[in-house]
Design a protein that fits this description.
Helix content is 58%, strand content 8%. It is mainly alpha-helical. It has 2 domains: 2-54, no CATH class; 65-102.
């Protein structure tokens, strides 16, 4: 491990670097913060704390246009599945919601 200067020529911002890893810890953190899936998982895992201590009630992540298109496609398919279940008399809203949350 070593300390790595973040801004060349400045001695006020440093990050820890494990020499066996490609990035220092600050760079690794920013990579995680730019990963919507990582953030989503983090918020879901810590939702109780976020609500209790920070009074956060909603979480909104901005996605790229490509991710939004993919998400919209998935939502369309889920809605088609939901409608198929309703049309065939086998729809159970609790099970359907559980299925979505498990994914």
């Amino acid at each position: 491990m070593k300390f790595e200067r973040i801004i060349d020529g400045k001695d006020h911002l440093w990050a820890v670097r494990d020499m066996n890893k490609p990035n220092n810890e600050l760079a690794a953190l920013f990579q995680k913060w730019n990963d919507a899936e990582y953030l989503w998982d983090f918020f879901l895992e810590n939702l109780d704390d976020l609500q209790e201590f920070f009074h956060i009630e909603r979480i909104k992540l901005t996605r790229s246009m490509q991710e939004r298109a993919h998400t919209q496609e998935e939502l369309t398919k889920l809605n088609q599945c939901r409608q198929f279940l309703i049309d065939n008399g086998v729809f159970d809203s609790d099970s359907f919601i559980s299925m979505i949350e498990e994914d």
